[in-house]
Amino acid sequence: MACHFTGEDVRAAYERIKDHVRRTPLDDSLYLGTEECRYRFKLESQQLGRSFKIRGVLNVLLQLAPAQLERGVGTVSTGNHAIALAYAAKQLGIECVVIVPVGTSRTKLDRMRLYGARIMTMGGSYDEALVLGRNYIDCNELVYVDPGKNDPVSCAGHGTVGYEIALLHPSVDTIVVPVGGGGLITGVAVGARALRPDMRIVGVQPSACPSVYQSLNDQFCYTTYPLTGETVCDSVAGGIGILAYEMLPGLVDEWIVVDEPEVRSAVRFMVMEERILLEGASAMAVAAVREYPERVGGSSVAIVVSGGNADGKRLASVLNEADDSLDI
Fold this sequence. Notes:
This protein is an alpha/beta fold and 328 residues long. The chain has 15 helices and 10 strands. Strand 3, helix 4 and strand 4 form a beta-alpha-beta unit. The chain is globular. The chain starts with 6 loop residues before the first helix and ends in a 9-residue tail after the last helix.
């Protein structure tokens, strides 16, 4: 059984990190709003490191003892978590080692190096890299910083996204969250409901890897899960975290699984019409609102745009695809 966290833990995390991160905007959509519903984007894509991950990383690092910081930190990540850790480590002047699987986006690798991380490639998939990387990190006595799947301290930091929405925008009644291993949506639900117990939470996963949705549906913790086909959502590939599996039942009001064409269309919509750069995984939440508004529900909806570290070549390819739904 994993160690859980509470709304009070999220509140404490917010106070701890608020002077070290950006208070990201909640911007109105130019095209999604209707007379019945207002849609706004929570732009974590404009956060330090270009994703929400810096919130969890800083909540961990700011609580480490000086002796732990001297040892340096390490992690296993396909991108945004590693970028956030590298950024935070550079600010604190500590060593950072990142283990990545083969095929990790060059754009994200370049960003990690820019922030001074030492990168090592291990394994052909995230799950393989995790086993090999954890062994390397432990053998070299680095402090392992979990991406948020299984660490309540990191998840509480991620939860400040939801807490911030509820604190600063009390009219919001629904939050739509893109979901990978479940750490972000667990944190958002706990954080938002610490202030607004009636907040509606909607989780969105890709049909290429619906690990969290399937785990909760089957009542079985799929800690590893296959990725099916080519997808722009590969950054959320992998299984559910044990912490999320234990905490999520009862926290999410609606689950939506979106198909690849819907996500790719959402990427084009956001870049070409809303003029917002985002990753494919972030576009899942937008796809759910565009395709299934009745299931999303709510009258004032915050859509979490979780990251903006898009791979340039992949983005160009998606933007060049025809899309009859856009007036461009």
